[in-house]
Amino acid sequence: MSDVEAAVTRAHRDEWARLVAALTRRFGDLDVAEEAAAEAFAVAVERWPADGLPPNPGAWLTTTASRKAIDRIRRESKRDDKHQAAVVEYDDDPPQPPGAIDDDRLRLIFTCCHPALGVDARVALTLRLVAGLTMPEIARGFLVAESAMGQRITRAKAKIKAARIPYRVPSAEDLPARVDGVLTVLFLVFNEGYLATGPGTGPVRRDLTAEAIRLTRLIHALLPEDGEVTGLLALMLLTEARRDARVSPDGELVALGEQDRGAWDTALIAEGHRLVRERLATGVAPGRYQVLAAINAVHTSARDMRDTDWSQILALYDQLVRLDPSPIVALNRAVAVAELDGPEVALAVVDRLEAELAGYHAYHATRADLLRRLHRGRESRAAYDRAIELAGNTAETAALTRRRDQLGLRP
Asked: Which residues form the signal peptide (predicted)?
């Protein structure tokens, strides 16, 4: 990749969400904002190699995208009325209440996560407009065709326009009721960065995890007493702290038990632990994100894998199952069962989840590991083969392939 190509890629990573958000604020139309942003990057790909990198790529993209948006508005029928409506509604923003956080990207995510939209539409729209994922990446995450995902996002944007959903952070009275849907989306955006699924992308997308953490910090500043906001922030920080140890120099995903714990970010771990302790001190029953954060706090408290308090982790998973009785939670709980009661007991738990998780790569990877520990090599190899077939991340595929090949068996 040339220096200019790298600069365009870096600008897309750093500027996409800010650019779409700023254009939405100015023109009040998500379609216009997304198309103009995409056109600006297309011009950059064409112009920057010939003209050289601009001194301020973000400002250059903003100016170019704004011109593209104005050109589109002028081309459309009744353009004067549309343009005037956009100017009246969006150029003169109403004054913000005292203490409000004026952040275009936060406005954008609350718009994308409006309760008038279905949950899948909220996630897809946020991944596209805020996180900047491509349509194939989003479609793969939802296990649907790219055309179907494109239609879903188009319908969501049309509904926002038709319902005149406001582009703003909700009022203090409305904020608590709106925040749950936003947390769900931010968690999914973080997870896409934590283990990216896009072809040709790195195994970890630091831009997505950083943006999810930044937006969650903003919401935490708005709602410092909300336990689930605090829990999600703690969960993200404790997960992000392990980022540099999660992928080997050869590009292979490193399992938690094999990570160099000296490479973990101690500042992020300390902050995450502090947030978990703050919530425990309130005595209020925790929600899902708080329990997940507590599980990660136990993991990151152990100096060595052998020091892990698996009894505490299993107790926390038992609590989580009551809050979220999903098969994926049951699968993760089985890992703790294996450490306490042995792989045979855990395998029986995992096998009961087959009907619900047969298409999920982690189910087959977990089962393969348990079968390996039970010295059932051929069955383990078959499970690894299926996990490799389903995995969407190059680093994860590399790790699964190595473990399978260490079995030393052939089909």
From this structure: none
What global pTM score does this model have?
0.78
In the chain, the number of structural domains is 2
* Same domain? 321 vs 384: no
- b/e code 60-81 from CB counts within 10 Å (16+ = b): bbbebbbebbbebbeeeeeeee
Find out whether 189 and 212 touch, Cβ atoms under 8 Å: yes
For residue 358, give the CATH number of its domain: 1.25.40.10
Range of the domain at 400: 332-410
- The verdict on 321 and 364 lying in the same domain is no
The answer to whether residues 366 and 114 touch, using CB atoms and an 8 Å cutoff, is: no
CA distance 349 to 362: 14
**Distance (Å, whole) CA 20 – CA 140:** 23
Last residue of a domain, one of 255, 290, 325: 325
Domain membership flag for residue 90: no
Helix (H, G, I), strand (E, B) or coil at 285: coil
Task: Render pLDDT for 79-129 as a digit per residue (tens, 0 to 9).
Answer: 555 555 544 344 444 444 444 456 788 888 889 988 888 888 888 888 888
> How high is the pLDDT of residue 243?
93
Neighbours of 204 (CB within 10 A): 20
CA 359 to chain centre: 21
Token pair 């101690």: residue: 266
Tens of pLDDT, residue by residue over 322-359, are 999 999 999 999 999 999 999 999 999 999 999 999 99
* For residues 254-264, average pLDDT: 94
Token pair of 88 as six digits: 């009246």
Whether residue 11 lies inside any domain: the answer is: no
| 320 and 217, same domain (yes or no) | yes
Backbone Cα Rg of the chain: 23
CB 287 within 8 A of CB 322: no
CA distance 5 to 302: 42
